Amino acid sequence: MSDLLELPWTEARGQVSPREYVDACLRAIANRNESLNAFLHVNGGAGEGVLPIALKDNIVTTDMPSTCGSRILGDFQSPFDATAAARLRARGASFVGKTNMDEFAMGSSNEHSAFGPARNPWDVSRVPGGSSGGSAAAVAARMVPVALGSETGGSVRQPAALCGVVGLKPTYGRISRSGLVAFASSLDQIGIVTKTVRDCAEVLGIVAGYDPMDSTSSTVTVDDYTADLEAGLKGLRFGIVREALALLEGEVRANFDEAVAVLRGSGAVIEEVSIPTIGYAIAVYYIVANAEASANLSRFDGIRYGHRSERASTLEEVYDDSRGEGFGAEVKRRIMLGTFALSSGYYDAYYGRAQRVRAKLRHEIAEAFRGVDFLITPTTPEPAFPIGAKAEDPLSMYLSDIFTAPANLVGIPAIAVPSGFSKAGLPLSLQIMAPHFEELPLFRAAAGYERETIHWRKLPPGLH
Amino acid sequence: MDIDRDEARRIAQLAHLEFDDAGLDRMASEMTKILSYIDQLREVDADAFEEHDVTVTPFRDDEPRPSISREDVARNAPAWRDGLFVVPKVIGGE
Fold it and tell me: Quick one: which of A15, A226, A433, B83 is 20 to 30 A from A314 by CA?
C-alpha cells in the first residue's frame, strides 16, 4: 500500500477504493508524523475520499481546530468551511489532517510554530521551509498526495523547494481567500503542494474561481489547466532574471544552469531580462506585509475567540496581556514593524515609499513579459538549512524569500518544480513565473520541464 | 532609523502588546537592524509611481443574508453570558 502513496494522485486514484486511499494516508501519518511533526491535527475519523488531502492549519474547516500554529487561537473551531475546502469536499476530497506552520504564516523555516517545527523528510535535522512547511513535508514524505498551503511571500514555493515537491502560488484572486486566516490581504493566496505538475493543475481546477465571499476573487474564466500539459517546450520563451543571476553561487548556480540547458535542449528560447528593482523586493515585502498584518491581527483581542489572559482586570489589559501571552516572538516583531510603518510621521517614508517601489516592480515585470512568456530563477538561494541556523537572525531568514516574494508583490502566478539535488542529497528547485492568469501556459512549461527531469520519483531516505 | 526603548514602548502601546523592559530593548534593537536593511529603499527612484495603482476591490451588493448563529459564536468565546461577550467594566468604574 505504500507503493500507492508513492504514485501521484491522478495515477493512484483509479487503483484504489476511496476508503483504502484515506486509510493508507492515515497509516502513513501514524508511522511518520512523530519524526516529522508535519501534522498538528490528524482526523482519525476522516471519511472515504477520492482525494485524501491535508490543509494548512490557517485554512478553516468545521471538523478540525484551526490554530494557525499559534497559542492565541486556543481551541478555536470554525463554524464554516473555507471556500477552497468546501469546493474540495464537494468533489469528494477527505480532510485527513491540518498541517504545521510558522505562526500566522510568518516564517520561512517552521521554527516559529508554537507547537515545535516540522522537519525536512530529506534530513530531519534540517528545516522543511515555511511557512507551509508541514504541507510540503507531508507530501514529500508520502503521507498525503496533495496538501493546500498559503502564500504571502513564498510560503508554498519555498518549502516545496526545500522538500523536493511541486508548489504553486496562483494569480492573486484565482482562489477565494474566504476561510484563509488573513495575514497580508493584498498578498495572501492559497497555494497547492503536490508531487507532480499534473496533480497540481487538476487541483487548481477544483479550487479556483469567483466566490462572492471574497470580493478580491476573480471572475476570469477558470481554464482546463491540464489541457496543455503534453504540449512541450518548443518555442516557449523563458527570461532569466539578470539581477537574480548575480546573487547565485555554488551548487544552486550550477543546478540553475543545468535547468536552463534542459529547457534550451527541449526547444525553448532563453533570453536574459532585466528587472532592476527585484533586489528590493524583500525590503518592500517586510513593510507592506507587516503593515497589513498589524491591522489584520488586531482581531485577536482576547474577547471574541481564542486566548484570554487570566491576569487581566481592565479592558486594556485584556487586549495587551492576551496578545502579549498569546503571540510568539516573530509575530510580535512583525506587528511592531507594521505598526511603526503605518504610524503618524513614518507612514509616507515607509509604507508609502514601499508601495511606490512595489508599483515600480510591477511595471518592470510587466515590461519584461513583453519579450518573454515566463521568468525563471531558482526558487530559493540555498537548499534546506539546519534547524536553528537562522533562528537568531530574522533578517537572514527573511532573505530566504528573495526570489519568491516578487510574485506576491505583483500578483502573478509562479510554480516551484524540483530541479535535482545538492551533493548532500538535498532537493533543489526551479521557479517559473508567468503573467497574471496565465496558469495554463505556466503548467505547460512546468510539465515540459518535469518530463525531461522526473526528479519527483526519488524518495526521501527512510521511505524505501 | 534607530528605535530606542521609548519608541518601542510607544509602538507597543499602539499595537496593544505587553512587553517588559528587557523585551522592549530586544525589540528595539531587532527593529533597528531590520529597518536599516529596509532603508535601502531610499536608493530607489520611484517618484513616478503612485502609492495605490492597483485595481480597486469591487463592492458586493448590500443585500441581507444569513450570518453565523449565536450558538456558533458562543462556542469560541472565552467569556460569554446571556448571549453577550463578557468584558471588564469600562463605564462608571474606579
Answer: B83
**Is the CB of B72 less than 8 angstroms away from the CB of A79?**
yes
Specify the CATH number of the domain A2-278+358-457.
3.90.1300.10
CB atoms within 10 A of CB A300: 24
Could you report the per-residue pLDDT of A289-305, keeping only the tens digit for each? 999 999 999 999 999 99
Does the beta-carbon distance from A394 to B34 stay under 8 Å? yes
Domain count, chain B: 1
Q: Which of A94, A131, A178, A429 is catalytic?
A: A131
Q: Does the annotation count A419 as an active-site position?
A: no
Q: How many CB atoms lie within 10 A of CB A95?
A: 27
Query: Could you tell me if residue B94 is inside a domain?
Result: no
Strand order of the β-sheet with A269-273 is A39-42, A93-99, A51-56, A146-151, A189-194, A166-169, A414-421, A427-433, A374-378, A237-241, A269-273
Q: Looking at the domain assignment, is residue B37 inside a domain?
A: yes
What's the whole-model pTM score?
0.97
pLDDT, tens digit, for every residue of A302-361? 999 999 999 999 999 999 999 999 999 999 999 999 999 999 999 999 999 999 999 999
